[in-house]
Structure formats: structure tokens, C-alpha cells
Amino acid sequence: xxxxxxxxxxxxxxxxxxxxxxxxxxxxxxxxxxxxxxxxxxxxxxxxxxxxxxxxxxxxxxxxxxxxxxxxxxxxxxxxxxxxxxxxxxxxxxxxxxxxxxxxxxxxx
Length: 109
Fold this sequence. Notes:
Blueprint: H1 2-19, H2 41-76, H3 80-107
Helix pairs in contact: 1-2, 1-3, 2-3
Keywords: Membrane, Transmembrane, Transmembrane helix
Organism: Macrococcus equipercicus
InterPro entries: SdpI/YhfL (IPR025962)
């Protein structure tokens, strides 16, 4: 259930942030921040758009996987193996987001 609720909360936060204009200008609180994304306003805008769209896809996929894990846990009960796998999936999703966004930013000119 950890995967489902964590992914759902993350997706809701991403949707709320994407609907506001908070990340249009560089700021110290919200947005995808890295050396690449801070290179120029063009890089910043590209990073926000790309990472936002990719994060929505990743966390939607994790929600679906989280539903399967939730059903499994309701049937078998929560155990350390299930929690560990779900935590690893969340971490891998975040790593995928960072690596993909950085790779994309290298192609932005």
C-alpha cells in the first residue's frame, strides 16, 4: 500500500504544481533543479515541462503497480518483502526521472 499512496500523493502534488505558474521562473523552492536546468531560462523551461510530463507518466504507472501490491497485501498480509520491493520501485522511478530529464537537457540547445 506504500507504493499506491506515495505515488498518488506525488501525482497529486505534481498536478497541482503544473496547474500553477510557480515554476515559470527560476526559484529556490519548486521545480526540477540541477546544473543543467539552471543554465538558461530556456533550459529551465524545458526541464520543467519534460520532468513534469515524465513524472506524471512514472507515478501513474506506479499507482497501477501500487494497486496490485495493495490487493496482494490485503490477501497475504503486509510483509517486509512487499514493503522493500515497493520502496525500491519508488526509488527507481525517481532515478529514472532524473536520468531521463538530464539526458533530455543535454539535447536542448
